[in-house]
Amino acid sequence: MSARLVKEERLAVNGNRSFFLVTLFVVCLMNEKSLYLTLTPKTIELVPVVNVFTEIDSTNAESLRRIKRGERGGFLIASSAQSAGRGRRGREWLSSANAGLYMSLALPFPAAVTNLQALSLVTALSVHEALKSLYSLELQLKWPNDLLAENKKLAGILLERQQVEEGAVIVFGIGVNVNIPDSDKAQIDRPITDLSCLSGVAIEMNVLCGTIVNDLVDKVGLFCKKGFVPFQDRWNELDFYNGHEVAIEDGNSRTVGKSLGVDESGCLKLQSAKGAITIGSGEIMPSLKLLPDSDR
């Protein structure tokens, strides 16, 4: 098993004294054999192909290229770095080497399965459960697909759908901050955190990736049978903004109201000045923000 020792220096102040705190983290790197060994028999049956790259433009972009070339079975792509990582709404996802988990899981879906947009929420729940089980972290969710720790972004999800003759193939793109360098933090316009800071333990990337994928495969199976309903209560329990005043921004429009969690289809419920409304998760996802005068 290969590993990288990460050194982090932080300026600390104690009274009139200033000094540097030096913290060492071990990040155990990914490889195909070790990652494959973390997968359950059920996952291997549905996801027989596993590829790990040292660097790639984007795991989602590579997944879509493979689907367009005719690949239809389930497959998993992970990389230690991305040169053109993508987030929602066309944002860049900074993906420096070994600073995060960058992965895409492609799964085929029959035409009979509907409400695929709710899979973003299901994916966020899988990442949450995996991180909680591995590192005992108390995390929150932000609709439709972010994970937060103390209102700082820890992970993000980008789902992309490719129509095929048999139905659709969904690419589940997942990025988890593991040990973000200060140079990257300075380029990000929102508060973020990472696993090394939160857990203080060595991060075994193969186990992290495999645990997420195993949980997601199980949840996708349940979703295909029963839809989003089995996940609704758990999402609302973990929703950081549930019960608070928020603003929904979608293009040039802005809607303000109280978040009431999500409904049985995964749409956000909002109590606005015009009454109760629901916000869907379509092709262009709206942006949700906590209002400054909220009590969080």
Give the quaternary arrangement of the chains: single chain
Query: Helicity, in percent?
Result: 25-40%
Our estimate of the beta-strand percent is: 35-45%
Cα-to-Cα separation, first versus last residue: 42 Å
- What is the name of the CATH class of the largest domain? Alpha Beta
- Quickly count the helices: 8
Output the helix-strand order.
EEHHEHEEHEEEEHHEHHEEEEE
The structural class is alpha+beta
Low-confidence stretches: 3-15, 18-26
- How is the biggest beta sheet arranged? 7 strands, mixed
Number of strands: 15
What's the Cα radius of gyration?
A: 19 Å
- CATH H-level homologous superfamily name of the largest domain: Bira Bifunctional Protein, Domain 2
Work out the count of structural domains: 2
Q: Examine the coordinates and then state which fold CATH places here, giving the name of the CATH topology of the largest domain.
A: BirA Bifunctional Protein, domain 2
Strand order of the largest sheet: 3-4-5-9-8-7-6
Shape: globular
Mean pLDDT: 83
Explained architecture:
It is a single chain. With 296 residues, the protein is an alpha+beta fold. The chain folds into two domains: 27-226, BirA Bifunctional Protein, domain 2; 241-290, SH3 type barrels (Roll). It contains eight helices and 15 strands. The strands form three sheets. The chain has a seven-stranded mixed beta sheet, with helices on both faces. It has a five-stranded antiparallel beta sheet with strand order 14-13-12-11-15. Strand 3, helix 3 (59-68) and strand 4 (75-79) form a beta-alpha-beta unit. Mean pLDDT is 83; it is low at 3-15 and 18-26.
